[in-house]
Amino acid sequence: MIKKLLTTLFFVLIHSLVSAQTNTYTGANGSWNIAANWSLGLVPTASHDVVIPSGKMVNIFLDSLAKTVSVSGTLSVSDGKRLTVSGNFIVNSGGIFSMGSGNDSSTLLVYGNYTNNGSTNFYKSDVIIAGDLLSPASSELQNQGNVIVGGNIIGEFTLTGGQGTNQIYAVNPTATVTIIPTTVDANVLPGAFPSGETATLIALVNLVIYGGSCPFTVNDIANVTACSGSNVVFSVSTTAATPTYLWQVNTSGSGWVDLVNGPAYSGVNSSNLTITGVTTGMDNYRYRAKITSGSPSCSKNGNYGVLTISTSSTTWNGSAWSNGIPTGGSSIIFTGFYPPAVDPNVNLSGCSCRVSNTAKVTIKSGRTLTVVNEVTVEATGELTFENNASLVQTANSKTNTNSGKITYQRQTSPYNPFDYIYWSSPVVGQILKDVSPLTPLDKFYSFDVATYDWKQENPNSLMTNGVGYIIRGAAYVLPKPPGLHEASFFGIPNNGLITVPIPSTAVNSESSALLGNPYPSALDANEFLRGNTSILEGTLYFWTHNTAIQNVGNITNGSQGSGALAYTSDDYATYNLTGGVTVVSTGNIVAGIAQTGNKPSGKIASGQSFFAGINSVAGTVKFENSMRVGVGNLTGNNTQFFRTASGKSDVTTAYENHRVWLNLTNTQGAFKQLLVGYITGATNAYEPFFDGVSFNGNEFIDFYSITDDDALTIQGRALPFEENDVVALGYSSTIEGNFTISIDEVDGLFTSQNIYLEDKLNSGIYDLKKSGYNFQTSKGTFNDRFVLRFTQKTLGVDSVSRLENSIIITKYKNELKIKSETETIERIIVFDILGRKIFDKQSINSTEFRIVNNNSTQQILIVKVVLENGNVISKKIM
Questions:
Q1: What pLDDT, on a 0 to 100 scale, did the predictor assign at position 782?
Q2: Cis, peptide link before residue 417, omega less than 30° from 0
Q3: Is the pLDDT of residue 627 over 60?
Q4: Strand 657-665 vs strand 671-679: parallel, antiparallel, or unpaired?
Q5: 161 burial class (0-12, 13-18, 19+ CB within 10 angstroms)?
Q6: Who wins on pLDDT, 550 or 492?
Q7: Burial bucket for residue 513 (CB in 10 Å: 0-12, 13-18, 19+)
Q8: Residue 727's closest CA among 578, 544, 851?
Q9: d(CA 237, CA 161)
Q10: What would you report as the CA-atom Rg of the chain, rounded to the nearest whole angstrom?
C-alpha cells in the first residue's frame, strides 16, 4: 500500500512531466554545490540521476536535491544540511556515504529504496526512507540516528559507539524485518516509531512516508493521562477541506491498526475519538488519525497522542498533601482530618479515594469530590458530605465498586408538620425512618405504579435504590419561621448501573412512577430522559409545597380567606427537553422568604424524588454514571432540591431553544405557569419528550396550552419559527374574579419577537411585551377563549386546516413522497423520535419531493414541510 502511494506521489504529483537526465560528478574532489563540477554544468536538481564515480570525494554544503543517487566514490552531507532524493539511493561496492559529525546532524529524505552495498554511516542524523532499507551482509551500516523506514528492513547493521543506537523503525506494520545481529532485530518491530520524536521528525515522516504532498496540515494530537476506568477523548484538527477521518491505534509496537466503533471506541470517523473505560493494559497506547481530503483524494497522518494510565497517589496527613492537591491524575488517600482550619475551598478529583481508619473527612457544602473508580472508607474512618456537596464517580461501571459507609446530609426548608417531602436514598442500606425519625410511623409512603395509588411503607424497611418515597414532617410544632430539616443518609454510596423494573401490570394510559435520584450527586434530567426513551413518557414532575405557613388573611368558618396569599397552593414543577416550569410566583412571600422563581434547571439534586410518566410498555428504568452531573460535558450543581423555597435556577439546554413562559395570577396568591418553546426536533403534534401534560396539583387554577386535545404545561413546537403560528391556551378556575396573564421570561428570538394574547371573548389582541393582560372570569374551564400569537394579523382556523390537509406524505419501501397540493415546497426536514435531524433539504422549489434510502424502516419519523409562503406543516409517519 505504501509503495503504491509513493508511486502516485512521486510520478504523478512531482515528476510525471520531467524527463530524467544523468548528471555525473566530473570535477576534482570538492563541493556538490558548484555547477562546474558536474557533467551537465548544473548543480543537480530533482530531475537528475546523480552519479558519484569511484575515486571522487564529494561534500554537500547546502540543502540539495536529486532524482536518484548512485555512489561509487565518497559522498558526505555536512552538519545541519539536507539531501532529498525523490527516487532510489544506491551505495555501490566500495562506495562510502556518511552524514554529520561531532554533536551536529544532517537529514536524508529518500522517497524510493535505499540500498547499501558499500559503507553507510547515519551518524546521529534523521533519515527517512519511504521504500526499503537493504544492506547485504558484506556491507556496513552504522545506525546511530533516527532511521525511519516505510518499507522492509533487510540486512546487517553494525552498531558502533556514540548514542542513539537501536534507533531504527519500520513504521509499516506489514513490513518484513530481517536484521543481523538479532539483538537489533528484537528491537525493530513492524509499526514501531521513536518514543521521543520531535515535531520536526514527525513532519519529515509525514512528508516522505504518509503523503506529505497533501495540500493541508494536520495538527499534533495531545497526550492524555487518565485513570483506569475513565473515559478519554483524543482530538485532531486539520486545515483539510471536508476531511474524512479514520482513527488508528498502535498498541506499543504491534503496528497501526484501523479502529471500528464498538463498546470501547466511538467517533472513529470523526475528529474526536472517545475511549470508554480505559484499562491499565492500555497504558502507552498511541492514537492517530488518518485524514483524507481532496479529489483525487490525498491521505495524511498526523502525530499521535500517547495514553498514559496514571498510577500515582497523593496523601493528606491532616496538614498537607504529599504529592500536591489531587486534580484528577492520582489516587486520593486521607490519613488525617480534612479540611484544615483554613478551608482551601477547592474541588478534589482523582482516580480513586481511600479514607483510612485515622481519617475524618468532610466535603463542605457546594464542593465536589470526583473519582473515576472506587471509594473506600475503612472501618473507623469517616467521610461526610455536607448539604449541596457532591460525590461524583465517572467510570462506566455496571456494579457498585465502593466499600465502607459515608454520611450524606440533605437539608430542606421550609416545612411544617403536615408537609410531605419527596425523598430518595443516595446510599445502600438506608433505613426509611432514619430520614425523619420524628415522623409518625404511618406517614411513610411509596407510589404503587400497578394500582396508581400511594402505598404505605414499613418505616423500618430499607430504601430501594432509584425509588422515590414521601415522608411527612415531624409531628410537633416548629419554630416560626420553620427551621431546617436535615436528613442524614448513612451507607455505601451508590455507584454504577441502577435499575427500577416497571411490571406489565403497571402499564396503562395513566401510568406514572415515583422515581428518585440514586446518587450522592446531581442527576442530569436530559441525559436521564434520553437514556430511557423506551420506557419513560418524557416529562418529570417535582412536588413543591407552597402553602404559606403564616396567617394569610380573613379565614372565617373554615372558608378560604382573602389575604395576600389566600390562594397560594401546592403543585408540581415540571421539566422536559423543552425546559422547566415553576410553581412559585416571583415576589410571593412563603414562610417569610421572598420568592425569586424556581424553574427546574434539569439538574436533579441528590436525595430528590420525582414523578415520571410511563410508556405503554413494560420495561426497566435505568440510572447510569454517565447521567450524573459532573461526568463528561455535564456541568451544574447539586442545590436544586424541591423543598427549598428560594433560589433561581440556571436554566441551560442542549438544543436550539426559543421560549416564552406565561403566568396566570391574581393579587391573592393564585399562580400557574406554562411554557411554549420552539425547539430543535419538536413538532406541532404531541411529542412526549417535548410536551408535558398538566400534572395539576393546584387546587384553585390550572393554565395550559392545547394541542391534539391535550392540556400541556409545557409545549414544544416546530422550528423554524413562523410569526403566523398561533397556540391555543386554556385555563380552569375554582374561584372567580380578576386575573392577569403576563410574560414571566423569554429567551432566544423571543427577546426581540412580538408576543400577543388574543381574547376571543372581546375580539381583542394585546401586546404582552408592553404589559400583562387583565381580565375577569367566572368559575369553570375555558379552552376557547385565549390564543397566544406573534403577529396581529389573523389566519382563520379553516385556512390552517386546509393547509395541513394539502400536504400528503406517503411511504413505499424506503422512499418517502411528500406532495403539496396548493403551495410550493421550500424545505423539508426529517427528525427521528428522539429529535435528531436525519435529513434536511432546502431550496426545493417544487410541489413534490422524494426521499430515497432514508433508513426509516420500523421507526417513527417527524416530517416538517416549510412552504414557500412561510407556513410550516409537521406530520408524523411510521
A1: 93
A2: no
A3: yes
A4: antiparallel
A5: exposed
A6: 492
A7: buried
A8: 578
A9: 41
A10: 36
Question: Nine-digit cell at 478?
Answer: 416548629
Residue 428: what pLDDT? 97
Beta-strand ranges (E) seen in 44-106 are: 48-52, 57-60, 64-66, 68-71, 74-77, 82-85, 89-91, 96-99
658, three cell numbers: 426559543
C-alpha cell, 205: 515522516
d(CA 415, CA 570): 12
Question: Is residue 334 pLDDT above 90, yes or no?
Answer: yes
DSSP 143-187: E-SEEEESS-EEEE----SSS-TT-EEE--TT--EEEESHHHHTT
**Helix, coil or strand: residue 744:** strand
Banded pLDDT at 753 (limits 50, 70, 90): very high
Q: Which of 485-499, 756-770, 851-865 has the lowest average pLDDT? A: 851-865
Cell 396548493 belongs to residue? 822
* Secondary structure element (H or E) that encloses residue 314, with its range: strand 312-316
Percent of the chain clearing pLDDT 70 (strictly above): 79
Per-residue confidence band for 304, with pLDDT thresholds at 50, 70 and 90? confident
Q: Where are the alpha helices (DSSP H) in 82-214?
A: 182-185, 199-208
Per the CB < 8 A criterion, the answer to whether 754 and 790 are in contact is: yes
Instruction: Compute the distance between CA of residue 55 and CA of residue 410 in angstroms, rounded to an integer.
Output: 90
**pTM (global) more than 0.70:** no
Among 88, 209, 96, which residue's Cα sits nearest to residue 148?
A: 209
Contact by Cβ (8 Å): 10, 150: no
Cis peptide before 440 (omega within 30 of 0): no
> CB neighbours (10 Å) of residue 608?
27
Spatial separation of the C-alpha atoms in residues 845 and 843, rounded to whole Å: 6
Residue 7 backbone zone (phi > 0: left; psi -120 to 50: alpha; other: beta): alpha
* Strand stretches in 335-474, DSSP E: 348-350, 353-355, 360-363, 368-371, 375-377, 382-385, 390-393, 406-412, 420-423, 427-428, 444-448, 453-456, 469-472
What is the arithmetic mean of pLDDT over 128-154? 81
- Asked if residue 136 has a cis previous peptide bond (ω within 30° of 0), the answer is no
- Grid cell 403577529 — which residue? 791
